[in-house]
Amino acid sequence: MTTEQAAVNGISITFEDKGPRDAPAILLVMGLGGQLTLWPDEFVDALNARGFRTIRYDNRDVGLSTRFDAAGVPNLKWMFVKSLLRLPVRSAYTLADMAADGVALLDHLGIARAHIVGVSMGGMISQHIAARYPDRVLSLTSVMSTTGNSRLPRAQKEAMQVLTSRPMSGDSEDLIAYSVRAAKVIGSPGYPPDEERLQRRVRSDFERGWYPQGVARQMAAIVADGDRRPMLKSIGAPTLVIHGESDPLVPLAGGRDTADNIPGARLLTIPGMGHDLPLGLVDTLADAIAGHAGAVAGD
């Protein structure tokens, strides 16, 4: 993989730009703590093969993009308490800031309008892009994401436990083993990963850019964002919402709520899919996204 650096929005973003430069562009926005490598190469290749240019990137505070060390590590437990009490929550940056990063990257690449595809937190960021920069968005696809509605069902207990039980030893092998276990717990029960491939991917990501402090600050940005439903009602871009029917981290209700609050949105639910992008669903996902993007007038 060949990546580049872009100085955008006052920070540095690491990205990969792949596919024909004259093809319609798809901006791929990753979720909480996920490096651009979490988009499977096979999935990116599938979108390229369907006639699209793809841009995937490390969000701020993750991977090889700018880190916000000076901001310190937030007290997430206290932030969750304040959120439940409907008290103001402050974060080092906002999801709106992260949306501005994505749009600035499009500016850097000279792309006037793009299809926006985001997963999990990346879906939240993509929702902000579609609402705040409507003239830059050809279509929106929000995958395994949600609205911030506090009344929605919460993550399954095991999924929350594994995400909040990161080993404190700092030992690399312990951390890699933990990451593999977490991926299995939140992953797709209908499409279990190949053990060797998963181990290889987790180790590679660890060596490339393991940075848990950034994950905590990204989580703070999610908590501080609150309920996006009023904003979602302003989105005019053609929208596809994709959600796994077996997602233990962001239950299916989150996808339904997203589709219900974006005018004209279409919901696609996938049996056996959890909170990941399994290889067994690459063609299903690529067909759905390419079909949605290709249906946009003038594309």
Summarize the entry for a quick read:
With 299 residues, this protein is of the alpha/beta class. It has helices at 41-49, 76-84, 95-108, 121-132, 157-163, 172-186, 195-209, 212-225, 229-232, 252-261, 282-294, and strands at 4-8, 11-18, 25-29, 53-57, 114-119, 137-143, 239-244, 266-270. It is built from eleven helices and eight strands.
SSE layout:
Elements: E1 4-8, E2 11-18, E3 25-29, H1 41-49, E4 53-57, H2 76-84, H3 95-108, E5 114-119, H4 121-132, E6 137-143, H5 157-163, H6 172-186, H7 195-209, H8 212-225, H9 229-232, E7 239-244, H10 252-261, E8 266-270, H11 282-294
Parallel strand pairs: 3-4, 3-5, 5-6, 6-7, 7-8
Antiparallel strand pairs: 1-2, 2-4
Write up this protein.
With 299 residues, the chain is an alpha/beta fold. The chain contains 11 helices and 8 strands. The protein has helices at 41-49, 76-84, 95-108, 121-132, 157-163, 172-186, 195-209, 212-225, 229-232, 252-261, 282-294, and strands at 4-8, 11-18, 25-29, 53-57, 114-119, 137-143, 239-244, 266-270. Strands 1-2-4-3-5-6-7-8 form an 8-stranded mixed β-sheet, sandwiched between helices. Helix 10 (252-261) links the parallel strand 7 and strand 8. The protein starts with a strand and ends in a 5-residue tail after the last helix.
